Amino acid sequence: MDIKNFDMGDIDIAWCPGCGNFGILNTLKKALSELDIEPTNLVLVSGIGQAAKIPHYFRTNIFNGLHGRALPPATAIKAANPALTVIAESGDGDMYGEGGNHFIHTIRRNPDITNIVHNNMVYGLTKGQASPTSQLGFKTPVQVNGVFLEPFNPIAVAIALDAGFVARAFAGDMDKTKEILKKAVTHKGYALVDIFQPCVSFNKINTFAWFKEHTYYLDGSHKVGDRNEAFKKAIETEKLPLGVFYTNASKTTFEENIDTYKEDRRPLYEREVNVEKLRDLLEKFETLI
Amino acid sequence: MLGKEDISIVLCGQAGQGIQTIEYVLTRVLKLAGYNVFATKEFMSRIRGGMNSTEIRVSSEPVSAVVDRIDILIPLDKDAIGHVKTRISAETIILAETENISRVSKQSGCVCIEVPFTKVAADIGDKIYSNIVAVGVIAGFLGVDLQLLNDYIRKYFSRKSDDIMNKNIEAAKAGHKLGCDLTDSGKIKIAVKPDANIKDQMLLSGAEAVALGAIAGGCNFVSSYPMSPSTAVLVFLSQHAKEFDIVAEQAEDEIAAINMAIGAWYAGARAMVTTSGGGFALMVEGLSLAAMLESPMVIHLGQRPGPATGLPTRTEQGDLELALYAGHGEFPRIILAPGMLEEAFSLTREAFNLADKYQVPVFVLTDQYFLDSYYNTAGFGLSDIKAERHIIKTGKDYRRYELTKDGISPRGIPGYGQGLVCVDSDEHDTEGHITEDLELRVKMVDKRLEKGEALIEDAIPPQLVGPKDYRTLVICWGSTYHVVDEAIKNLERDDVAFLHFKQVHPLPKETVSYLEIAEKTIAVESNATGQFAKQIKLHTGIDIDKKILKYSGLSFTVEELVVKLGGLLV
Question: What ipTM does this complex have?
Answer without folding.
Answer: 0.98
